[in-house]
Amino acid sequence: xxxxxxxxxxxxxxEIIPPVDIAEVEAGVRLSVEMPGAKSQTISVTVEDDxxxxxxxxxxxxxxxxxxxxxxxxxxxxRSFRLSRDLAREKIQAEYRLGVLTLTxxxxxxxxxxxxxxxxx
Length: 121
What we know:
With 121 residues, the protein is mainly beta. The protein has a domain at 15-60 and 75-110: Sandwich (Immunoglobulin-like). 0% of the residues lie in helices and 40% in strands. The protein has no helices and 8 strands. The protein has strands spanning 15-16, 20-25, 28-34, 44-48, 51-58, 75-82, 93-97, 100-106. The strands form 2 sheets. The protein has a 4-stranded mixed sheet with strand order 1-6-5-4, with no helix packed on it. Strands 2-3-8-7 form a 4-stranded antiparallel sheet, with no helix packed on it. β4 and β5 (51-58) form a beta hairpin. The radius of gyration is 22 Å and the shape is elongated.
């Protein structure tokens, strides 16, 4: 009896929903997205319409010793958020440090107080 050579399927990464802290700061909103083990070159932050999406691929822990138990492994982080129109999408900043992706979303100009000049004769 011959066995068929199994087809090579692309590896499907398990989806990981990262925990997020959201804080209102004076200049707008700050999101802290926990993504330990994320490969920095795979981190993606996109804005489409009113949706902000963060994603990244997580590295697998590899060790030269015999693995006895593993609860972590490869996976893909992904999380989306609906954005308020009061935030300036074009000014979003992102920084990844020590396993945490920090996003700063400044307030849109139309939400900031402005001084109106009063003309006199």
